[in-house]
Write a structure and sequence with these properties.
Elements: H1 11-20, E1 22-25, H2 31-46, E2 53-58, E3 63-70, H3 76-84, H4 87-95, E4 99-110, E5 118-121, E6 129-130, E7 134-140, E8 150-153, E9 166-169, E10 172-176, E11 200-202, E12 210-214, E13 219-221, E14 231-239, E15 244-245, H5 257-262, E16 278-280
Antiparallel strand pairs: 1-12, 2-3, 3-4, 4-14, 4-16, 5-13, 6-15, 7-12, 7-14, 8-11, 8-13, 9-10
Helix pairs in contact: 2-3
The structure holds 2-oxoglutaric acid.
Length: about 290
């Protein structure tokens, strides 16, 4: 049986995650894992997948924001990262789930000086998986200076109504998707007129630090970079054993339903399969 690294998470950090919707842990990823991620991102950009999009690609300013979503089967570096690094063990401990399922990996590469922020959103409202045991682990290969952090809304993973969904399309970042019959909350002006009503969480980070946030925690930002500064951020998505495959009224993004079906997984299933292996809190890869 393959073995992933194990990283003990304190009960205090787990409690913070469930209370606030996010927690940042310092110095989790060794140089070996950062090197693996560097290769993963470079390979991804050289060999785009069918889900690769440039959210921004401005020939005049040179500003580019590359984005992709990949399972462990799409990129050997990300496969090793998901199944060998301490992330799986951390995810299982934080979710208090017997196993953490390595759902997929998301890449965001901003060229130096890019000014485009990621729109406010909740990851899980796009996913083809529902359940409370769901999280993302975000990390960056470049230092994240104050003023350029990913920003998260404290406690938003507990909101009763989902946030209206932002548009994420080829050269179409922002704007709200209108879905018939879906009760959503209009996106507040978190950094402007409504700033006093919400507690924001943001952390300057160094390579090796990780930010764990719940699938329903509202977040955005991570842009407006100073000249000469690039941002390669990688987000790893994990599910716990209460997760079930679902469809969404607005369609899923990413839509893994066809690939899951090829792996024998249908609506209502916990999607453990060759496409989405699982890892225990002790690091055993199943
Ligand atoms: O790095 C970013 O700009 C966005 C990160 C994000 O939205 C995510 O990981 O879900």
């Amino acid at each position: 049986m393959a073995q992933a690294e194990r990283f003990p998470v304190s009960q205090g950090d787990i409690d913070t995650f469930w209370r606030d919707g996010a927690v940042m842990l310092k110095n989790v990823l060794s140089d070996q894992w950062l090197e693996e991620l560097r290769h993963g991102v470079a390979t991804n950009m050289e060999q785009p997948t069918k889900r690769t999009v440039d959210w921004v690609n401005n020939k005049e300013t040179g500003e580019r924001l590359f984005h992709d979503q990949l399972t462990v089967q799409h990129n050997p570096h990300f496969e090793r990262y998901m199944l060998g690094s301490p992330l799986g063990s951390i995810a299982a401990q934080v979710m208090a789930s017997p196993t953490a399922l390595a759902f997929y990996v998301t890449t965001f590469v901003r060229s130096p000086g890019t000014q485009s922020r990621t729109p406010w959103h909740q990851d899980q409202s796009y996913w083809c998986a529902e359940g409370r045991q769901a999280l993302s682990i975000w990390t960056a290969l470049d230092s994240v200076a104050a003023g350029t952090e990913l920003e998260l809304v404290k406690g938003s993973h507990l909101w009763e109504r989902p946030l209206a969904q932002s548009q994420f399309g080829e050269s179409q970042l922002g704007g709200v998707i209108d879905v018939d019959g879906m009760e959503t909350m209009p996106v507040p002006d978190f950094t402007g007129a409504d700033a006093d009503k919400y507690d924001m969480m943001r952390w300057p980070m160094e390579p090796g630090d990780i930010l764990i946030f719940h699938g329903m925690t509202v977040h955005g930002g991570s842009g407006a970079l100073p000249p000469g500064v690039q941002r390669r951020s990688i987000s790893a998505q994990f599910l716990g054993e209460d997760a079930r495959v679902t469809d969404r009224p607005s369609g899923c993004n990413p839509d893994w339903l066809p690939e899951l079906a090829e792996n024998g997984i249908g609506l209502g299933d916990y999607p453990a399969c060759a496409m989405c292996p699982t890892i225990t809190a002790e690091g055993a890869v199943l």
